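The following record pairs a protein chain with its ligand, nicotinamide-adenine-dinucleotide.
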Amino acid sequence: MRLKDKVAIITGAASGIGKATAILFAAHGAKVVVADIDENGGNRTVTDIQAVNNEAIFVQTDVTIKADTDQMVAQTLKNYGKLDTLLNSAGIAMRLPVAELPEEDWHRCLDVNLNGVFLCAKAAIPAMQKNGGGSIINMSSIYGIVGADVRAAYVASKGAVTNLTRGMALDYAEDNIRVNCICPGFVETPLVAGVIKTPDEYQKLANKHPMRRLGQPEEIAYGALYLASDESAFVTGIALPIDGGYTAG
Ligand code: NAD
């Protein structure tokens, strides 16, 4: 029970890494607010959590809309009375280089992956200040540390998330609000399923990682569990790779 009595909002918790983390946090005693644009998926996550007698609610949230992110925090306080942790996992992929990338796709990627983190943090920080502190965890990427081809908007958004994490960590350290990010390598979720259609394609992607495989959502969730728990009470401003060695070389 590493998160006993803690209240956590997890965006993007209808699927993939966010969902795995919501289930893990709830299993460790947290009351979890599943925040996602996808109502059916979000409700499925809540059902899975409640099926084993753990605690969660769904709040439909588009992280690009300020009224939604304000409502997400308001509903959390109404239901659970406080906020300890915000995990920003909502995100989208965008696979094109600059010259071919439609302007609206560039804006959409930055809107969800970067502005969404800004809006959720902006809504959450006053509640955390009132609570005497908190933990914000941003889901960046290996591409928040190193570059990559054919992903101009995605690498720009994740590079910005990594450095926004550091900036927020410095701004709110004295409020005891810790801000860290996780930088996953490729993880087997619906986000990457689209680029793996054959065993060959899997192996090609796996071979980019020294451990020669992709990660599982639960392997990222355990990093988030550490950063949400009091075990990491002196940890702020870090970018934690969980990537099978991808960024070590
Ligand atoms: P996923 O597609 O399985 O889940 C993303 C979730 O975000 C979905 O439930 C989706 O509905 C939600 N979402 C999308 N737009 C939203 C919006 N505007 N408002 C609210 N929710 C919205 O993806 P995933 O693989 O679990 O990725 C989670 C995070 O991890 C993303 O930020 C992604 O960039 C990052 N990441 C993933 C990988 C990977 O290989 N899967 C690697 C590095 C980083």
